[in-house]
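Appendix B, record 7
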Amino acid sequence: MPALPTKSFILCVHAHQPVGNFEWVFEEAYEKSYRPFFEVLEKHPGILMNCHFSGSLLDWLMEHKPEFIEKLQKMHLRGQLEFIGGGYYEPIYGMLSKKDLAGQILLMQERQRALFGKTPLGSWLTERVWDPELAKTLRSLGIEFTILDDLHLENAGVKAPVTGYYETGEGKDSIRLFASMKDLRYLMPFKPALDTVQFLGSSAAQPEDCFVFGDDIEKFGLWPGTYEWVYGQGWLEQLFSLLEKSEQIKLYTFSQFLSAFRPKSKVSVPHSSYIEMMEWSDGNYYNFFKKYPESAYMRDRMQHLSDRVAKVSPKPKDKNIWEKVKQLLYKAQCNCAYWHGVFGGLYLHHLRSAIFENIIQAETTLTKEAKRFGLPAPKKIESIKLRSGNRFRVLQKNMVSFFNPFYGGALEELDYLPLSVNLMCNLGRHKEKYHQSLIKKEGTSGSSTKEEPLSIHDILGSKEKDLKDHLHYDRYRRLSFLDHFFEAPLELDDFMKCLYKEKWDAANKPYKAKKTLKGLELSRKAGIEITKLVTPRSDNVLRVQYTLKNTTARLLETVLGIEFNFSIGDNFAMKGVTSLPVRDWVLKDDWRNIAIKLRMSQPFSFLAAPIETVSGSEAGLEKTYQELGVLLQKKVGLKPKGTESFWIELETEAF
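Structure tokens (predicted):
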């Protein structure tokens, strides 16, 4: 009986924790996934493994778990581990300038040479978001291969099952493409270990038809229900033992397979990612920036910083401070806060906040060292060109404010510089596809059976009861100094749930904007002609002078509502506040001990309500606090050709 053909198999795991993630999350991921996985692997020297660790995780491991780094080094030296490079802080490649992408990849290569004595030949493609122009860029950086998904190559005309590797690009600019198989991603570790081995063995593949598993290591222990299954019940031990005993399956590292076999063909791969990402993004990753203006704004702020950094040629004596600025920029490019799928991503305030924290720190340094770096000195008030439209930046010693003239002439970002915090790191309540099935799924949870854990893609139940009662959607972006006109004063519940109508359009409409000797003037005619004059006062006080003018020949009466939104943890106001007319109010951020003081020259009634989203997490749908919504209201009556003026001051300080 002729011998069965050998089946080739490549195992690759990817380990990552986002910039800004909580310390306890790093620790839990280490104890439930990273440490036990490699402890089992160490006992099976015959199992070859490819692995990629993001720079943000490597930094944490080197500081907190040096013994783990030593274990990786030993396994690498004995030829068991092959490391894959990538963008250091796990950026989406297509979001970056070529210079930044090169900087991130070269930084990872430098770190891996220092730790493991070898420059990686491959690059982990973040979230497998592929753009055709990447081939030339990656090859110029010494990258020989990357790992896509089988969907990528099927979109390029390759028939399933996608095995082996392919080539894309022209001549010296071409790179090799491996494909992680969806079937394997759904088998491992969610089905018995024998199922994986039988899947490989049952195929009619030849040795050159290599099967590739490339996926998150966190699914081996950190994902719900997997720790007991993978380690307690010995799934990983069983898999490695079966593979070691198999006479039909041969394990390779990527570089070994490249040396042994030729590419199957040349392909031209269009923009794509793994199938779940394509579903979440409606077919194109960059659609996230169309659906979520908050994400687009973060991207724009990051790219504006990148443009400033690119203009600098630092002197040798300034190298250290300049490397710090670049590191802050690279950290602000970490992908996780810019999008979301099963995991919270964009919906997690602490991840968005970390993006802004790094941008603010880098910009503060550039402002302080503008002369040293040959940059123009920033003006107190100036127009800033962003991809989504110009903003006006108001610069003070302790605060930086960004106003959006195209959207209500509203305040879009408020930075408290002493702590590098954006106090308006807000997110609106958007409609999501999974909301449609919330009522049907409510009452389920992300638990699993003792026999097999559920795949992460199958556990999107509800962590809390009655979540459907919290499905409210915002009609406007969650900005500040946002102007509303109502027929009657709003009640707290109507404000929180956006159950109101506008009498005149202003909240999301463009305002005329111009810089004057007095400050930044923003104006719009909306039933009443409204003008806002923004002036910085002292180091940390911003005054907005309102002038309302009736340009008609009749009496105009309305209720003016001025909305604010702050991403702060005010434990008192988050319970909901309805107040009689006041002329001042202090909001306290109990997360970071920052006070936001509102002072008014005229009395306003005061409402405050928590703004919560319903979004997905690894354990199911959950309610997440995003920001505090605040509404100042007052009745306005203007005689024909009459005017009314008042001011509101916003002050920030630590307490």
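Remarks on this record: The two ends are 82 Å apart (CA to CA). Residues 443-449 have pLDDT under 50 and may be disordered.
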